[in-house]
Inverse folding.
């Protein structure tokens, strides 16, 4: 397990979700494929992981720069890409309080309040959404403790949903969602890191459409 926890109470720490790409929108798409390492470098992020499932013009080859669309709903600074019928939205309001939708798709009132949001495949810590376990695989999860305003980005080199949910709960997460995994799984730490190795931590094998992570003002 590789994990990074951000405390959103700390001044200068904020969230990041990939914004819509203007050129892609002109071509009827939403994003351009980028490796997580590219997104961290170009957008000056403290750390990030891969985001949602996606489809691209390059199909299975996944070439950087190709136009792509997210399979799930994504919200970047109050801008919604689209509403997908099978999205369980994991989102934050203007006060950076995290929320996990237990029904799909997200309603209009939720989307009106969401400043940041990432579409998930399963609310893995909700009892009525307990996963049957699924096979062990490379997996990426995003988790939070809404009351303490803590957020985790996590990658498991090999885990089932059930195992990952137990580990996330042991670390203090109250809500969590699974995003894309397999060869899309990636975690990268930005070059401004102190007391920890920067660069690719795990994965980063192929470019993806969306990314989720953190911005952080430089330490003195």
């Amino acid at each position: 397990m590789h994990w990074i926890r951000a405390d959103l109470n700390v001044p200068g720490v904020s969230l990041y979700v990939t914004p819509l790409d203007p050129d892609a929108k002109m071509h009827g798409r939403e994003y351009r494929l980028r490796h997580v390492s590219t997104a961290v470098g170009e957008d000056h992020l403290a750390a990030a992981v891969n985001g949602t499932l996606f489809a691209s013009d390059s199909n299975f080859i996944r070439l950087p720069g190709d136009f792509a669309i997210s399979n799930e709903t994504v919200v970047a600074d109050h801008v919604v890409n689209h509403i997908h019928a099978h999205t369980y939205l994991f989102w934050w309001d203007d006060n950076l309080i995290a929320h996990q939708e237990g029904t799909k798709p997200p309603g209009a009132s939720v989307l009106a309040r969401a400043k940041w949001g990432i579409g998930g495949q399963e609310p893995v810590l909700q009892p009525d959404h307990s996963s049957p376990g699924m096979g062990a695989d490379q997996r990426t999860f995003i988790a939070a403790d809404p009351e303490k305003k803590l957020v985790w980005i996590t990658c498991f080199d090999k885990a089932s949903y059930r195992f990952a949910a137990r580990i996330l709960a042991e670390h203090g997460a109250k809500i969590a969602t699974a995003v894309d995994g397999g060869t899309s799984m990636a975690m990268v730490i930005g070059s401004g890191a102190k007391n920890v190795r920067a660069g690719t931590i795990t994965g980063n094998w192929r470019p993806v459409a969306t990314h989720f992570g953190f911005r952080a003002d430089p330490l003195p």
